[in-house]
Write a structure and sequence with these properties.
Blueprint lengths: L2 H33 L2 H22 L2 H15 L3 H28 L10 H9 L1 H16 L8 H18 L5 H9 L11 H26 L2 H5 L6 H31 L4 H14 L4 H20 L2 H37 L8 H16 L3 H7 L3 H26 L1 H27 L18
Helix pairs in contact: 1-7, 1-13, 1-14, 2-4, 2-5, 2-6, 2-9, 2-11, 2-12, 3-4, 3-6, 3-13, 4-5, 4-6, 5-9, 6-9, 7-9, 11-17, 11-18, 12-14, 12-15, 13-14, 14-15, 15-18, 16-17, 16-18, 17-18
Length: 454
């Protein structure tokens, strides 16, 4: 199979998986919105965003490092460092997740947004170690070339479980399920779910997905990796993990900071809930980019080890085209029908988020068109450039959010988030030119690379 066909096949399967997973997650959110009061859903959404941010220091760039080291070991046949890193990273993730959870719980008494919702917080924090360990397990599978196995337990299985659990807990929120149950004489409870119950169901789904992924990793390990004596290169790992962790954390903060600042600025829980729904809907436009990154990251690492600049350019160009092709229809749909779509899928009052959805959709389109420069830099050892770019985006977004959210609410948050996407992409695109001599953006399609190898 040719390189292009292999990339297309991997990206296509990954895209199908991403679509299925996001679709299931979207259905689960729609059912939750209908089954919960707006204020309860706002609390639930805030806690999810909080945990998404807290898990960053619990993994601190290690998953990206695991992909890189495992892919390099697979390329060269030297699995000793990969095995050592896998052992150390799991130990670190477990300890860091537990300490962060306990520390946040101790601080809850002093934070007004957390204190009244302590049961929800405890359940949310219980997912921290699981999420950190899950990220490392998925990274190891992707580094071993098992891109699909490295994704589907978290991308598809977990949201499917959440959807099933929510539907069973509040079946009156799903009219067809209600009708089916009545047919068999089963009386259903009213469609009312608390944020505490919703978070408990999320915790159970996370635990099941983690265990399934663990089994997949054990089965996917080659004999060479099982038999290898672990080699620990802690100094080099720490030197790489720090900028990767800072950069990755900043990148996730760029996504979640708007929700967190809305809570810190005491915006109404209903408004926070609507913005989270809008942000999750906008992620539909990022499906192609996410699928391409999952497929190409190990290839970028292997090209770096082999010194294959031409192969890196081919993969980057194809990734940019595929990402943009998938993103464009969603961005156009959000521009034309975003408000009515939100009102139809969720509550009618969610339709006010239509303009916000259009802004976020255009930001994702820009991200797709600029290509996979972040993954290329991380996989080739230029993680500091990634960190600097993401930091610039976060600072700009935070300043704009603090200035715009009090005056413009949802739209202020969306504009700040869009700037947080555009600014780092421009810097990353430039760094890919300088460090790798590669054109990552969509207009690099067909470009021929000449010059010395990497």
């Amino acid at each position: 199979m040719s390189e292009r066909r292999a990339i297309l096949r991997g990206a296509s399967v990954s895209l199908v998986l991403q679509v299925a997973g996001l679709g299931l997650g979207y259905l689960g959110t729609a059912v939750l919105v209908r089954a919960m009061r707006p204020a309860e859903f706002g609390v639930y959404g805030f806690m999810l965003s909080l945990v998404t941010v807290l898990v960053l220091p619990a993994q601190f760039g290690v998953p990206t490092l695991v992909i890189r080291e495992t892919a390099a070991g697979r390329q060269t046949g030297d699995y000793a460092a990969a095995k050592g890193l896998l052992l150390r990273s799991n130990q670190f993730a477990l300890a860091a997740g537990l300490l962060l959870g306990l520390g946040t719980l101790a601080l809850a008494a002093f934070l007004p947004m957390l204190r009244p919702n302590l049961p929800v917080l405890i359940l949310a924090l219980a997912t921290l170690p699981l999420l950190a360990l899950t990220a490392i397990r998925g990274a190891a599978l992707r580094g071993l070339g098992q891109v699909i196995a490295g994704q589907w337990p978290d991308v598809a299985l977990k949201p499917a479980l959440v959807l099933v659990f929510v539907a069973l807990a509040t079946p009156a929120a799903v009219p067809k399920l209600t009708a089916l149950c009545l047919l068999f004489g089963v009386v259903l409870p009213p469609a009312a779910m608390s944020s505490t119950l919703a978070m408990a169901l999320n915790l159970i789904a996370t635990a099941i997905a983690f265990l399934v992924g663990l089994v997949l990793l054990w089965r996917a390990m080659p004999d060479e990796l099982r038999r290898a004596s672990p080699r620990f290169d802690s100094r080099r790992w720490i030197a790489s993990a720090i900028p990767l962790g800072v950069g990755g954390g900043i990148a996730v903060l760029n996504v979640q900071i708007a929700v967190l600042l809305m809570g810190a600025l005491s915006r109404p829980p209903e408004e926070i809930g609507i913005y989270r729904v809008v942000a999750q809907t906008a992620m539909l436009a990022a499906l192609g980019y996410t699928a391409v990154i999952a497929t190409l990251s190990p290839r970028f690492a292997a090209a770096q080890v082999a010194g294959d600049r031409a192969g890196l350019q081919r993969a980057a160009s194809l990734g940019a085209v595929l990402s943009t092709a998938v993103c464009l229809p969603f961005a156009l749909f959000f521009l034309a029908f975003g408000g009515p779509f939100l009102g139809l899928v969720f509550r009618p009052e969610a339709a006010v988020g239509g303009p916000t959805l259009a802004v976020l959709g255009l930001a994702h389109l820009f991200n797709a068109a600029m290509g996979c420069s972040a993954a290329m830099l991380n996989m080739s050892g230029h993680e500091r450039d990634f960190t600097i770019s993401c930091a610039v985006g976060l600072v700009l977004q935070t300043v704009l959010a603090l200035a715009l959210i009090p005056a413009f609410g949802l739209m202020g948050a969306a504009i700040a988030s869009a700037v947080g996407v555009v600014a780092p992409n421009l810097l990353l695109w430039r760094y890919a030119h300088l460090r790798l001599g590669v054109e990552s953006a969509i207009w690099g399609w067909g470009r021929k690379i000449s010059g010395p190898p990497l």
